[in-house]
Specification:
The complex is a heterotrimer. Chain A is about 75% helix and about 0% strand. In chain A, a hairpin with a 5-residue loop joins β1 and β2. In chain B, β4 and β5 form a beta hairpin. In chain B, about 35% of the residues lie in helices and about 25% in strands. In chain B, the strands form two sheets. Chain B has a six-stranded mixed β-sheet, sandwiched between helices. Chain B has one domain: P-loop containing nucleotide triphosphate hydrolases (Rossmann fold), CATH 3.40.50. By secondary structure, chain B is of the alpha/beta class. Chain C is mainly α. Chain C has a domain of about 220 residues. Classes of the chains: A mainly alpha, B alpha/beta, C mainly alpha. Chains in contact: A-C, B-C. The interface between A and C is large, with 49 and 47 residues.
């Protein structure tokens, strides 16, 4: 395993981590502020990617497609909130799980019906489609660096919003003690709508940015959603800072694990067995990490709620 | 030997010292009342005794045994029974089932998987007897969630009784009960007095002076006075800190 | 019916006659289907009965214990591979693989439950989901045993060397026996002293601890029992399809199992069993209408969650009460 390979995989891991963060950020705020478990948040990521494909088909311009997809993802998220999710606040977690599971079935199958089950692709913008040469002739795609940059930018923006704006203060208060925001005289309905819409837009943004790298297909959000759950559990529900750190850790562990586990396994096992055991262990790494964190800190690394 | 002895119990939440080096005992057969203004830390103290909250320093002894490190259920298994300040019954069980479940905690078949719990005659008989004691015999078949507030308080006492406790922790058992219900609860506890030692936290001074053998006054996490009820009533420091406003 | 479900078994005598009648009717069903030339429905009903085993096992944890486990499919897929992997190595004896499936799933339940049951609420939901995915991805990576594609078994488990369950009717009766046995066991446990403790912890966990019950241990035992029965269902599923695949452990399966329990009214074992059979039949009927039948299923699930939380049993009781 050369240093270059390690660097490339570390960048890939960082990139996966930041995509995870974009999804987990909305999820953790919705949990933290509204005590609402939204399994359909991963679908929002898938919707964002498909919207970008559609708008790119209409405009043939990536930037314009991105902008339109963001607006449409926001509108879509707000519409879902008004139609379904609003009626589930304050209901049991079981009701929330059921309803959002139903939404997943509808939207995933709906995407299959409209766009077909085969994966679609979204070209990356011309100017950013090149590669940056690394050592010994290896290139690294510029677009993946753009994803990393965008993720870091959103993280900084989010941190600023949560720390320094009035709504951010309300969100923090809500995540710490849900009853308190009511007592503060905040319009909870508006706050919930804002948080929900914003979270949906972030997930949609992740979908657009990831679309040129991964395939655009109906079930693309499933795996990431569950990884985002792992991120939230490790980071602590309701904590943006926790979500960010946990997302980067999970992205790195998963990517590096998959890249090097077979090599590591070969040190202990026959090659044939290592080819099976390595990937199997690698796919379990983040879950084992989560179990370990939970065992020592059941509230996650950075719990928003004390006690 | 004291039934309950706590020594130097201390609990901080951040910079706030909620329990500040509290020591007290409950002797066999004694009713020891703990009074104090709101926010004095009474419920936090009860939680530490029961094992729901871990103290930062100090010891809790039950019949001489150090139980400081034991979890709540293990202390309960050693005979510590508790009623809650905010009523805590099982709303979807009937009153009888609530008490039977409490009795089950001490029964040999407590976790038996091959039986019909609702038809356990021994548990049901114990439950009915305890409900009779608190005057709820006529309500045995009602869902606990549908009982009036005062009745639920009585139900809690019945649940505590049926556990054959070595010590009863009563966290404001009269809170929210009407005058008649309060009188009935006082009468019930008075009948138990001498048989079951109790640590009674209560705002109702009528109840405290009717039942207590000793009274301790908790102010801002510290015990400021302990003594016989008459002595406490007469203590000028206590009057200044507390009674002057409430017992007028 | 709903009230009985909400207030667990107040000294109400069991209706064993009704249960016997239902089992007898189900036992005769294959003969009727064959006579009517609709033998295919025997296969559909077998599948429904297998899922009924799983749904009733889940009901113990979800309905009685109030623990929203979103990783139940892991027990199924472990049970299925406990049949598939020995089969790959020429071990086809049901008396070996069925107990193996139950033990393996129970062990997994014990290990993951010991961590997951330390948490509450949404944490528990997400953690069980994550452990389920862990198993799913690990099996996907096992290329020796078919990886993503799974393995075909070319036959069913034998009993003491005899190939008893080749015939679809014989296999149907095996599934019916497993479902009836699971029903009797889960129902008995639910009504027992143990079940009352589990139910009490659902209603008020803190109070149970104050009474002296070790809630964690009770839940862990229930979780392991539930896992063992899930493993049994998985082993049956492998035999039913004569095929094992990581897809049995997909989180969609976990979600559908929850739907089955809720369809049946959430608080009733019997309801969970019928919820499973109903969903199997419904999927069969809907998939003949349109290839995108999952949209219809999703709409139904959202509707149930928003409007009719007490499921079929509740709707039936309301209809009767009119």
């Amino acid at each position: 395993m050369s240093a270059t390979l390690l660097a490339v995989q570390a960048l890939n891991g960082l990139q996966l981590g930041l995509v995870l963060f974009l999804i987990a950020a909305g999820l953790t705020l919705v949990f933290g502020v509204m005590d609402f478990i939204n399994l359909a948040h991963g679908v929002q990521y898938m919707v964002g990617a498909y919207l970008a494909v559609v708008f790119y088909g209409l405009t043939a311009h990536f930037g314009l497609a991105l902008l339109l997809a963001l607006v449409a993802a926001l509108v879509f998220g707000l519409a879902m909130e008004a139609l379904v999710y609003r009626h589930l606040y304050g209901r049991s977690h079981l009701d929330q799980v059921l309803a959002t599971f139903g939404i997943i079935l509808i939207l995933t199958e709906g995407a299959k019906a409209v766009f077909g089950p085969a994966p679609l692709s979204l070209p990356r913008p011309e100017a950013l489609s090149g590669a940056i040469p690394l050592m010994d002739g290896f290139g690294y795609p510029v677009w993946r660096l753009v994803i990393i940059g965008a993720g870091l930018g959103v993280a900084a923006l989010l941190y600023g919003l949560v720390q320094h704006t009035r709504m951010g203060m309300q969100v923090r208060a809500g995540a710490t003690d849900a009853e308190m925001i009511g007592a503060l005289g905040v319009d909870i309905r508006r706050l919930f709508m804002g948080v929900f819409g914003f979270g949906a837009m972030l997930a949609g943004f992740a979908g657009v940015m990831a679309a040129p790298v991964f395939a655009v297909e109906p079930t693309m959000g499933d795996g990431l959603l569950i990884m985002a759950f792992v991120v939230i559990v490790i980071g602590g529900i309701g904590s943006i800072r926790g979500a960010f750190l946990a997302a980067v850790i999970v992205g790195l562990v998963d990517t590096l694990g998959r890249s090097f586990s077979t090599d590591v396994a070969r040190m202990f096992l026959a090659p044939a067995a290592a080819n099976d055991v390595g990937p199997a262990v690698a796919s379990m790494l983040v879950y084992v990490l989560m179990a370990g964190v939970l065992f020592w800190r059941p509230q996650g690394l950075f719990p928003a709620r004390a006690g | 030997m004291s039934v309950l002895a706590i020594e130097g119990l201390t609990k901080r939440f951040g910079a706030l010292v909620v329990t500040d080096g509290v020591s007290l005992t409950v002797e066999p057969g004694e009713v020891h009342a703990l009074i104090g203004p709101n926010g004095a830390g009474k419920t936090t103290l009860i939680k530490q005794i029961a094992g729901a909250v871990a103290p930062d320093a100090g010891r809790v002894r039950l019949d001489g045994e150090d139980v400081t490190a034991l979890p709540e259920h293990a202390r309960a298994a050693r005979g510590l029974a508790r009623t809650f300040q905010i009523t805590a019954v099982f709303p979807q069980f009937t009153a009888r089932e609530n008490v039977a479940l409490a009795a089950q905690a001490k029964a040999p078949r407590r976790l038996w998987p091959f039986s019909v719990a609702a038809r356990d005659a021994g548990l049901n008989a114990a439950a009915d007897a305890a409900l009779e004691t608190v005057g709820l015999a006529g309500r045995a078949g009602e869902l606990a969630g549908r009982l009036a507030h005062g009745e639920q308080r009585g139900l809690e006492v019945a649940m505590a009784l049926v556990q054959r406790p070595r010590l009863l922790l009563l966290d404001e058992p009269m809170a929210g009960a009407g005058r008649d219900e309060t009188d009935r609860l006082i009468a019930t506890l008075a009948r138990l007095k001498g048989r079951v030692p109790m640590l009674l936290i209560e705002h109702d001074m009528g109840a405290v002076f009717a039942l207590a053998d000793r009274v301790s006054v908790l102010v801002a996490g510290r015990i400021v006075a302990t003594g016989a009820p008459e002595a406490i009533r007469a203590d000028p420091a206590v009057r200044a800190a507390y009674l002057g406003t409430e017992a007028a | 019916m709903t009230l009985a479900a909400e207030t667990p078994a107040p000294a109400r005598a069991a209706p064993p006659l009704g249960a016997v009648a239902v089992v007898a009717a189900l036992a005769l069903a294959p003969l009727a289907f064959d006579a009517a030339g609709a033998g295919f429905w025997i296969v559909v009903l077998s599948r429904g009965l297998v899922y009924a085993v799983a749904a009733m096992a889940l009901q113990l944890v979800l309905g009685r214990g109030g623990l929203v486990c979103f990783g139940f499919a892991a027990f199924l897929v472990i049970g299925a591979y406990a049949v598939g992997i020995p089969y790959h190595h020429r071990v086809e004896e049901g008396l070996v693989v069925l107990p193996l499936a139950m033990a393996a799933a129970a062990l997994f339940a014990l290990a993951t439950g010991a961590i997951a049951l330390r948490t509450r609420g949404v944490y528990f939901i997400m953690i069980t989901l994550a452990f389920g995915q862990m198993v799913y991805y690990a099996l996907t990576a096992l290329s020796t045993y078919g990886g993503d594609d799974g393995m075909t078994l070319w036959g069913r488990s034998q009993v003491a060397g005899f190939d008893l369950f080749r015939d679809r009717r014989a296999f149907y009766w095996l599934c019916l026996g497993a479902a009836a046995g699971t029903w009797a066991l889960v129902r008995a446990v639910s009504r027992s002293h143990f079940g009352r403790v589990l139910e009490g912890a659902r209603q008020n966990e803190a109070r149970m601890a104050a009474l002296g019950f070790d809630v964690f241990r009770v839940r862990l035992i229930a979780y392991a029992l539930s896992g063992a029965l899930g493993g049994l269902a998985g082993a049956l599923l492998a035999n039913h399809a004569e095929f094992v695949s990581p897809a049995y452990g997909s989180w969609h399966v976990s979600g559908e199992l929850i739907v089955m329990v809720v369809l049946g009214g959430f608080a009733s074992v019997t309801g969970a069993g019928f919820g499973a059979i109903l969903l199997a039949v419904l999927e069969e009927v809907l998939s003949r209408l349109t290839s995108h039948w999952k949209i219809l299923l999703g709409l139904g699930v959202v509707g149930v969650a928003l409007l009719a939380r007490d499921g079929l049993a509740g709707a039936l009781a309301r209809w009767r009460g009119r």
